[in-house]
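Thought: the user wants the 3D structure for the chain below. I'll pass the sequence to the structure tool as-is, report back what it returns, then summarize two notable features.
Action: structure_tool
Action Input:
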Amino acid sequence: MMGNITLMEFLSAGREVPGHRPWPRYQLDARTWRRLAEQMTVSNWEILAEWGEPAEVHVLLRGEDSGAIAVASHPCPDGKFFALGQARPSAIRLERAIRDLWGLVPEGLEDQRPWLDHGRWGVRHPLGKPRETDGVPHVYRFHTAEGDGLHQIPVGPVHAGVIEPGHFRFHCQGETVVRLEERLGYVHKGIEGLLAGKPVADAARIVARVSGDATVAYSLAFAHAVEAALGHEPPPRAVWLRALMAECERLANHLFDIGAICNDAAFAIMLSHLGALREKVLRANQACFGHRLLMDRVVPGGVAADLPDDGVPILRRMAHEVGKGFERAMQLYDNTPSLLDRTTGTGVLTGALAHRFGAGGFVGRASSRGLDARRNPGYAPYDDLAFTIPVMADGDVHARLTVRAEEIRASLGLLDQILTALPAGPAAAPLALRGAGEGLGIVESFRGEVVVWVRVSESGKVVRCHPHDPSWFQWPLLEAVIEGNIVADFPLCNKSFNCSYSGQDL
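Observation:
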């Protein structure tokens, strides 16, 4: 292992791949890739995403001290690679998924159980060297817990409410949770296989649906990646309209999440209040951009819909009404001791664990981890906007709710700034689909950092594309925070994370 070497100094030992923008990509041989894993045990280099191809594995890295960002790649002609999950537990599920989809074996990884592949596809390694199977479901072996008086409670994958499917296996002693293990993958859609070979415009629609509640963030990350790959600059007005939509999406999701957390603590009136405020945001979205959830509004090259003539006053009125109603609702929250008793001290995520898994979004910021992709690495127009990134240290349900509340206030302030400074001009510029390239987009969704990597061919079609959801790094932490809490607090902890099933399941 080497001493205090920076990320870029280390990666420069590899071969830089031409045409990868806006951050570099380096190919590492087997020896250097193994040294990368060893160096990660002593360096503050975090994994932002990891994915595969039929004969190569890629990892997106950030130097936490320097903020440097780069992709490291490792050709795998023998179908194997040294598992980074040995140094970074956040990579374990990613590498299990790489084996399921591409058939590349993560050597040294203790947990080799299938993750996305439940045995029902009728084919193994569909994106690598596929071979047919009998379609008999796998017998999934959950981890066990031993001790006097322990019992198991299986929950899901089908749940009582309107919620995506996921299985949760509790080991309990009385009402106290000793161990929780998740099994996801039930809404795997074959996203990466669907994207391969699609024209850019068709691929944009698929990426927008990876996780529907973050459709603006995914569309924006895909647009950034494609524009970087092709060297395209969207018009200034489009850049600002994209930020406007992104903040409306953040606003709507945080409003509903705070209400839903309170509802899981048997305080339904908050859900009613904040659900009504979310409806105001969605109606403004419809009036100004033609879609309540803003789906397919952000496209490579710009945006699909400009503001109508009355769009600015509609959004200003919405922001004013939402701001007033939200402060009244938060007064109710702050002045209800029985509600605070449920949220305070429940489901504590330590700062050390949040850093170890590279948790972003409100999950990380509620546990002392103050990263936000709008600032680091940053993208336009946020470098021209003033906003605070709320950070707390308590790491409990109350802290995650409070960070959301502060982000709502910040988004309302950003809406005002964007509407005031919105430049004139065209809302889109047609893409010049010429010249192959690789691009990367990193965007702050309401959950955290959404990453999209894309390779575009000379003909303007997607060769490969990988979308990464922040929930990959947040789901394992939910298992940790519920330990020592009672079973009845699981819905509260779960909603305070609000991880995406669909985004993780691909």
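Final Answer: Structure generated. Residues 236-264 form the longest helix (29 residues). Residues 193-505 form a domain with the Cytochrome-c3 Hydrogenase; chain B fold (CATH 1.10.645.10).
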